[in-house]
Amino acid sequence: MSQARTVQGVGIIGGEEAINWGLSGPMLRASGIEWDLRQVDHNECYDEFDWEQQALEGIPGGPYQNLEIRRFDRVKDTVWNEFDYRFISKNPSPTFELSKQELYVRVEAPKGELGIFLIGDKGVFPWRYKIRPPGFINLQILPLLVKRMKLVDIMTLDIIMGEVDR
Prior knowledge:
The chain contains eight helices and three strands; from the N terminus they run H-H-H-H-H-H-E-E-E-H-H. It is an alpha+beta fold.
């Protein structure tokens, strides 16, 4: 009969160290630093919560329906189903132009801060851009977290990060 393993004490990192590594989101909060980008940037209604289940109380009751499904059912064969429009993201709009400026936009994604940096040059494509995915930043600290761990314990760190191959 095998014993159940505990994950207590696995992957611990202190607050100062988390800041030095550039961690954000749940990784930063788990290290004891109270920083939530949704509150700092005043996203949506996050300022109204003191984080003790108020979101559930604010959801209105009654029936609901998915209006998008109804709209797609109504329109079957439109021009949007043709081949040219399937890859519309690869065809930039000629009326959209990026102004000549630098811009950084950030949101709190499930793994931490997702940042997008653009430099416009009055064209339809940015002159330069950089995407800062949280998973890639979180992955850099993995060697520190797995020291003196067993291989099976690594899975408790939730290392599924789709953007780390970029």
